[in-house]
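Before surveying the methods themselves, let us examine one representative protein, written as a sequence plus integers encoding its fold.
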Amino acid sequence: MVGRGVLMSCVIGLSLDSVLNCLTRKCQHLFLEKEFGYAKPYRICGLSFERNCPNMTSLSVIGFDLSDKNAYLLIKGLRKLKYLNLSRTKIITGLFLRDVSRDDCIDSLLETLILRDCNSLEERDVCLFLNSLLIGNFRFIRHIDVSNEAGLIYGNKPCSKPLFPLEKLNEERPGITFVAEFRTPPPAAAASSSSSSSSSSSSSSSSSSLGDSSSSSGTDDDED
């Protein structure tokens, strides 16, 4: 009901920032989704609402214009957050994944991170985040989803065949499910079934480090 109320307020003209800043300390679950085709942008600037909602455990902000800084502040500021869904956030590149892997966010309680259809998401930042999991960061995380239509960005263009350290992840963090399904790969990639979807119980031929992952995937993509 909280999410529905916020969406209704946005439609009648209040800024999203203003509505979020009115949330109370009792708010634990919030779901916001901007409808497809709704042209008015809702760029969230301050995100000071996190100070008003210290007990929030589940947050979905889908289809809004959050920046990487906004995403970073959400994870850093909402210390009890366990579920975060930022799907259809068009402008984030994944820089926030690098930032949260380097400071006190590594002890976050976050269990689920959904970044579906974030079309500017870069392969290198996702790989950096996965590599941080290998050394024990985000010890509570169990599910990550970076799926979209075309793939992650590598060298300013989509790459539908990124190579992630999935074998190492399966060995070091067997409880994690990582999903990266790219629904419209190039014909050659489709024939070889390289959707890069993995879970803790699945096997993968990718065991490369971040450096090897980036260079290999870029080369493969150029050849296609």
In short: The chain is about 30% helix and 10% strand.
